[in-house]
Design brief:
The protein has 311 residues and is of the alpha/beta class. It folds into 2 domains: 186 residues, Rossmann fold (3-Layer(aba) Sandwich), CATH 3.40.50; 106 residues, Rossmann fold, CATH 3.40.50.1100. The protein contains 12 helices and 10 strands. It has a 6-stranded mixed β-sheet with strand order 1-2-10-7-8-9. Helix 9 links the parallel strand 8 and strand 9. Helix 2 crosses helix 7. It starts with 10 loop residues before the first strand and ends in a 5-residue tail after the last helix. 45% of the residues are buried. The chain binds pyridoxal-5'-phosphate. Pyridoxal-5'-phosphate binds next to helix 3, strand 7 and helix 8.
């Protein structure tokens, strides 16, 4: 990215009785290994955004996220490496001590600006953006999660790393930017399937279509989004999900986290076992990273799940 080197990442084949019985080949694209700090889909989503900021002569980047945001974590690290100042606009009230994500962002030099949940909902309005621009000297603004047409361009390049030996790509969805970028890159070939991390994410399909239109990509319609694997909503979890993550990690040696990739693999294995995919189907599942928050989220989730409450 711009001047940040990255490693080429493996497509790791999974072996299990479940997969053999269903006749499915499943490989995991290990984007979690792409860069130690700018990891997963973030590397691809930020690449052209930061390049555009540099070309515009911007010196400060401002973006938005929740207190555990992988995007904020990756952006803070990328900005530090590339010599940008950075502002993280964080949803909700400040909490001290800072959690590990925000502590890391601050240690990278990111200035944290908190917005109440009400104002945060208005973050992309002209009014709030003008206020932030005035306060921080006209920074280059990257939307929440980094999802825009420039993110799609970066994610679309990932397709070239996958070869041709597959029928379907599966990925986790938050804002839909990653799925939209993959759709753009495939240009009508293969099938794509998203797994929404949020509850009631019926709006996501429209967001994906809007992002494709913004990037002037045709929507070939070779994709759909599963809405049934949110486990209660964003950042919520259940004992089944946590047990699945622990078992998956032990069996395959690949770490997952409960916000995105845990839900993706749970849903995918459930669908494989239910016989949704014809025998012989070759699937690539995208490991989109997010491991920076894993340990805190897993221990918080275990505690919450034991006490019957959600994060
Ligand atoms: C680890 C991880 N996976 C997947 C996603 C979903 O990506 P998108 O927002 O592009 O749908 C995110 C979102 O930020 C993420 O942090």
């Amino acid at each position: 990215m711009v001047d940040i080197q990255h490693t080429s990442t493996p497509l790791q084949k999974l072996d299990s009785d479940q997969l053999s019985r269903a006749g499915i080949t499943l490989r995991v694209k290990r984007l979690d290994l792409v860069h130690p700090l700018v990891s997963g889909n973030k590397w691809y989503k930020l690449k052209y955004n930061l390049l555009a900021a540099k070309e515009e002569g911007a010196t400060t980047i401002l973006s938005f996220g929740g207190a555990y945001s992988n995007h904020i974590h990756a952006l803070a690290a990328a900005c530090q490496m590339l010599g940008f100042s950075s502002i993280g606009v964080i949803r909700g009230e400040p909490h001290t001590p800072l959690n590990a994500t925000l502590k890391f962002a601050q240690a990278c030099g990111m200035q944290l600006h908190y917005l109440s949940r009400t104002d945060y909902r208005l973050k992309h309005t002209h009014l709030i953006q003008q206020q932030l621009k005035a306060e921080y000297g006209n920074p280059y603004i990257v939307p929440e999660g980094g999802s825009n047409a420039l993110a799609l361009k970066g994610v679309a390049e990932l397709i070239a790393e996958l070869g041709d030996d597959y029928d379907r790509i599966c990925c986790a969805c938050g804002s839909g930017g990653t799925l939209a970028g993959l759709i753009a890159g495939l240009a009508g070939r293969k099938q794509l399937e998203g797994f929404a991390a949020l509850k009631g994410a019926g709006f996501l399909s429209i967001d994906v279509q809007r992002l494709l239109a913004e990037g002037a990509y045709v929507d070939p319609g070779n994709w759909h989004i599963n809405l049934d694997y949110h486990f209660g909503g964003f950042a919520k979890t259940t004992p089944q999900l946590l047990a699945f993550i622990q078992q998956f990690e032990a069996e395959h040696g690949i770490p997952l986290e409960p916000l995105y990739t845990g839900k993706l693999f749970y849903g995918l294995f459930e669908r494989i076992t239910a016989g949704v995919y014809p025998p012989g189907t070759r699937i690539i599942a995208l490991h989109s990273g997010g491991l920076q928050g894993r340990d805190t989220l897993m221990s918080k989730s275990c505690h919450s799940a034991r006490n019957g409450i959600h994060l």
